[in-house]
């Protein structure tokens, strides 16, 4: 592949949060969320080159506003760049796309312009961009860690403390049913009190029995307690349960994610298919990384 | 694959340390090393089942003593187990095999006997086993993190602080020239003073310019300063340099690891081949994980 010399490319995976608790802090590096989610092999692949005039971000060929990515870029370089993102996850549906876009951009910039930053420094810059734009809840820390990351203490490294639910690679089946405004949830003080209380007890339960099955069950209970699920999300979660699988809602999206043992995989897939088109991802022991041209 | 019900299987990758500094501490969880290395796709694949009479560890079909793995097992279960390890890395040559054997055993035990531990808890148990047996210098933390892990603060999570050199997947070519006794190095107080002083300044240099090229150069300087390299290791390192690649010594082994840009890859491989059989691994964005049967 022929590419101009000051170009960089990187991939960052999507991250689906099952439950969470928000933590405020005057220091943006310590602000964030605790909770648990899954990191998937779908994500955002980004190529950056030096821009002309002003910074422009393209997503799957279309020019986009990308506030978080632009905040991230301003922290790292003082010249315009051209950012070309290709996504294999839905945008704005609870797949951590804004963090994946920013994180892949950070790695690509580091590579293209020899910024000489470590992974922790890149993650910190993305974390600050996410927190100041209110677009993320700890997705970047998950994407940086891989697998089934547990966020035990909020914040970017070295402030945040991460752990993992030990797990082999497994499939998650996802359907997107509509849109859910992150802002409308995060700005509702009463709802956030319920979420934080439910999120705190969910984390305690998960740490007492850190398995994927328990993560799925606790996530479903969290969704039910907080009343975040639309009727169709509830119906889809129940249909998966009836088919012998486990499902919950992606935080924050009008999205259902499901998994199952091998024996009921086809039934779970078919149950979800009656609601919307199903996309299947793998949860693996991998994380973000620059990509060689 | 048919397997009895209380069986577990896991993989842990090898880890080659390029430079390090030892840190003592009365708390074994805070004792360990700082430094940097590479995590490779070769490692140890372990199957555990309930044992009969006493715990037995097999490596590639032969019964082995495996002190570190036995210490680990005693921390996690109070009944005998049968451990069957298959290795794709050399043993006792600076590839972190003792940590990989113990870490894969820890994950497999957790899975087989539903121990209900998180990854951090499993890593802590392996870390304590390594430190108390004097067999490891932080390999387990690297294997748990993947890629090109920088150990900035010693100890297992959450005490230790890890970072990464951002890097795409790349190949490392390895040759094993003989044996190096870890104990003879770690018990030589004068040598350890030199190692620790060189390791401290190596880490500072790496953090100032965290790239794979700089890691390889700093590692080579560390080897030269400490005088750990045998004549043949020195010759192999020089031969790789003359072939347009970068090489250093695996800590602690009579082993050389090398990498290069695409253009000189064949020359580097050929240069190494004149000393011993070359094995090539990939450094990827992956880490330890249980394996589904």
Keywords:
homodimer, eight-stranded mixed β-sheet, 293 residues, four-stranded antiparallel β-sheet, globular, 2 domains, Alpha-Beta Plaits, alpha+beta, Ribosomal Protein S5, domain 2
List the helices and strands and how they pair.
2 copies of one chain form a homodimer.
Chain A: E1 7-23, E2 32-50, E3 56-59, E4 62-64, H1 67-76, E5 81-87, H2 97-112, H3 119-133, H4 139-145, E6 149-153, E7 161-164, E8 170-178, H5 182-186, H6 189-208, H7 212-226, H8 231-242, E9 246-249, E10 254-259, H9 265-273, E11 279-283, E12 289-290
Parallel strand pairs in A: 3-5
Antiparallel strand pairs in A: 1-2, 1-12, 2-5, 2-6, 3-4, 6-7, 8-10, 8-11, 9-10
Family (chains A, B): Belongs to the GHMP kinase family. PoK subfamily.
InterPro entries (chains A, B): GHMP_kinase_N_dom, PoK, Ribosomal_Su5_D2-typ_SF, Ribsml_uS5_D2-typ_fold_subgr
Catalytic activity (chains A, B): (R)-pantoate + ATP = (R)-4-phosphopantoate + ADP + H(+)
């Amino acid at each position: 592949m022929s590419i101009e010399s000051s170009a960089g490319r990187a991939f960052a995976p999507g991250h689906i949060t099952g439950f969470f608790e928000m933590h405020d802090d005057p220091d943006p590096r310590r602000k964030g969320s605790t909770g648990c989610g899954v990191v998937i092999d779908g994500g955002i692949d980004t190529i950056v080159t030096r821009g002309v005039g002003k910074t422009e971000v393209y997503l799957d060929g279309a020019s986009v506003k990308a506030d978080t990515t632009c905040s991230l870029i301003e922290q790292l370089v003082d010249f315009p760049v051209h950012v070309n993102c290709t996504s294999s996850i839905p945008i704005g549906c609870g797949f951590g796309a804004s963090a994946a876009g920013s994180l892949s951009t950070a790695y690509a910039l580091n590579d293209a312009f020899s910024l000489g930053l470590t992974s922790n420094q890149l993650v910190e810059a993305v974390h600050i961009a996410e927190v100041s734009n209110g677009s993320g809840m700890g997705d970047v820390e998950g994407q940086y860690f891989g697998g089934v990351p547990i966020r035990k203490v909020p914040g970017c490294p070295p402030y945040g403390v991460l752990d993992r639910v030990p797990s082999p690679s497994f499939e998650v089946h996802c359907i997107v049913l509509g849109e859910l405004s992150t802002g409308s949830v995060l700005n509702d003080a009463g709802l956030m009190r319920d979420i934080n209380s439910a999120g705190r007890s969910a984390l305690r339960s998960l740490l007492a029995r850190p398995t994927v099955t328990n993560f799925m069950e606790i996530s479903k209970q969290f969704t039910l307690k907080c009343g975040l699920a639309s009727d169709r999300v509830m119906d889809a979660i129940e249909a998966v349960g009836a088919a012998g699988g486990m499902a919950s809602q992606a935080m924050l999206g009008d999205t259902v994610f499901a998994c199952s043992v091998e024996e009921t995989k086809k039934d779970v897939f078919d149950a979800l298919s009656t609601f919307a088109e199903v996309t299947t991802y793998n949860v693996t022991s991998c994380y973000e990384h620059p990509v060689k041209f």
